[in-house]
Write a structure and sequence with these properties.
Layout (H helix, E strand, L loop, with lengths): L1 E5 L2 E4 L9 E5 L4 E4 L5 H13 L7 E3 L5 H4 L2 H4 L3 E4 H10 L6 H9 L5 H10 L13 E3 L2 E5 L4 E6 L9 E6 L3 E3 L17 H12 L5 E3 L7 E2 H21 L3 H11 L4 H12 L2
Parallel strand pairs: 4-5, 5-6, 6-7, 11-12
Antiparallel strand pairs: 1-2, 2-3, 3-4, 8-9, 9-10, 10-11, 12-13
This protein binds zinc ion.
The site of zinc ion has 5 residues, from loops.
Length: 277
């Protein structure tokens, strides 16, 4: 689904097999694309949808982190790429990889690649598979402001468990925060988990943005501020509880239930924090 969500922001919702959210920030002079898509076909779908709305094609694309589903479409977008320094480092490594099935399977065996990612790459891009990793030209470490004329976008490094290079994009005056995958659990790890240290630091950074709308990398629902605060509040509360009680799963869940019903989100957060101890 492709939609205009605020005066300057267009959003294409996530899709199968693992296509993430893509967005365009449209100023009077320039358009900025947020994330480049899981393949040339995915990027093309977005670019054509933008053109269909009469929107100027992107002048830049900013990547939220280095994971394949956010970066493989960059060659199709074919404009200068903006990325965090650690994203750029990872892309330079990926540019040296082979992407055929045999090479993917080998990297899964050595834990350099996640099995579910290899599976989704095969679905998104059947063999013979051509992947051209484009390298960023504009690199930042903490934050970068873009003035697109009439609308600004702050790219801010936030890190987190999912990928430590994660950045978010804050769009004003629309007050939209494009989160990428920063809220998700650690993916390239032996066990998927959250660490309280990283999650608390991440949530503290996200709370500083005065946003009205929140777009997640793999969530088709646009969150408003109360929804974001409820979700991030559950995440923080789960972390505080696990920090307090420690590695005893039964005791952690008993304490959580004593405070009220444990919903699906809280159950997931508790288990992921326990796995991160
Ligand atoms: Zn990711």
């Amino acid at each position: 689904m492709f939609q205009k969500i605020t005066d300057h922001v267009y959003w294409m919702t996530p899709d199968k097999p693992d296509r993430p959210s893509l967005a365009a920030v449209v100023g009077e002079r320039h358009t900025l694309m947020l994330d480049s898509g899981a393949s040339n076909a995915h990027a093309r779908l977005f670019l054509d949808a933008l053109a269909g709305e009469g929107v100027r094609s992107p002048r830049y694309v900013a990547l939220t982190h280095w994971h394949w589903d956010h970066v493989f479409g960059a060659a199709e977008v074919d404009v200068p790429i903006i990325a965090h320094a650690e994203t750029a480092e990872r892309l330079a490594v990926m540019a040296g990889y082979e992407w055929d099935d045999t090479s993917l399977d080998k990297r899964v065996a050595t834990h350099e690649e996640v099995e579910s990612c290899a599976r989704d790459i095969k679905l998104e891009l059947p063999e013979p598979r051509v992947v051209r990793i484009e390298l960023p030209e504009i690199i930042f470490r903490d934050a970068l402001d873009l003035d697109l004329c009439g609308v600004t976008c702050r790219l801010q490094h936030v890190g987190g468990d999912h990928s430590r290079d994660s950045i978010v994009a804050f769009i004003e005056p629309d007050r939209v925060l494009f989160l990428g995958d920063c809220l998700y659990d650690a993916l390239y790890a032996r066990t998927r988990h959250y660490s309280t240290r990283r999650v608390f630091a991440l949530l503290d950074k996200l709370d500083k943005f005065d946003a009205d709308y929140y777009i997640e990398g793999h969530n088709s629902t646009l969150m408003d501020r109360p929804a974001f605060e409820a979700y991030s509040g559950k995440m923080r509360a789960a972390g505080i509880l696990v920090n307090k009680i420690g590695a005893n799963e039964t005791a952690v869940f008993a304490a959580a239930r004593a405070r009220g019903p444990v919903d699906e989100d809280t159950e997931f957060f508790l288990r992921a924090f326990l796995a991160g101890l």
